[in-house]
Recover the amino acids of this structure.
């Protein structure tokens, strides 16, 4: 097999059809300062997390496509960081991207995630991290729904937990989170 064919198959295989991020979306890659920052030793993270969660959140791992428990979930509620329980995404921003990973067009609270450049595997992508514990969540691409801002946050299920909220309770929870009230 020619090297470029293997690379092309790899790119298609991981759902990275649009690996380049516009310069307007680039960040400085610096973790935000927070009063509630969670900082643990590697040993403490290994004790707190399951092996799959540790692989994703602490070593920038990626779960296999179409295998994560949330990739095709239709339940309504809020997805939080498995490392620190910070609310990250709401089900009303989730969509089927066809990539095999849970995809969202925006975080539930903008300041709860942060991005940095990721140049691994010969691609330029933008990595998405939890702003409280700096856990790796996945990547963001500029091929999301154009009527929703054009972004696709491609997130690993093992980096998330889920709390179900139905109907008006979901709307109320999103408003509460966005208002900054705990």
């Amino acid at each position: 097999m020619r090297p470029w064919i293997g690379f092309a198959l790899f790119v298609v295989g991981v759902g990275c059809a649009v690996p380049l991020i516009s310069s307007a979306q680039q960040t400085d890659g610096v973790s935000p300062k927070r009063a509630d920052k969670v900082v643990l030793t590697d040993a403490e993270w290994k004790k707190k997390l399951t092996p799959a969660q540790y692989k994703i959140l602490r070593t920038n791992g990626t779960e296999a496509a179409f295998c994560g428990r949330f990739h095709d979930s239709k339940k309504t509620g809020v997805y939080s960081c498995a490392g620190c329980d910070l609310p990250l995404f709401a089900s009303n921003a989730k969509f089927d991207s066809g990539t095999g990973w849970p995809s969202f067009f925006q975080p539930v609270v903008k300041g709860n995630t942060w991005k940095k450049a990721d140049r691994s595997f010969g691609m330029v992508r933008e990595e998405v991290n939890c702003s409280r514990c700096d856990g790796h969540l996945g990547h963001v691409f500029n091929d999301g729904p154009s009527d929703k801002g054009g972004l696709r946050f491609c997130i690993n299920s093992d980096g998330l937990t889920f709390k179900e909220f139905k109907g008006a309770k979901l709307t109320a929870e999103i408003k509460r989170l966005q208002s900054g009230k705990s």
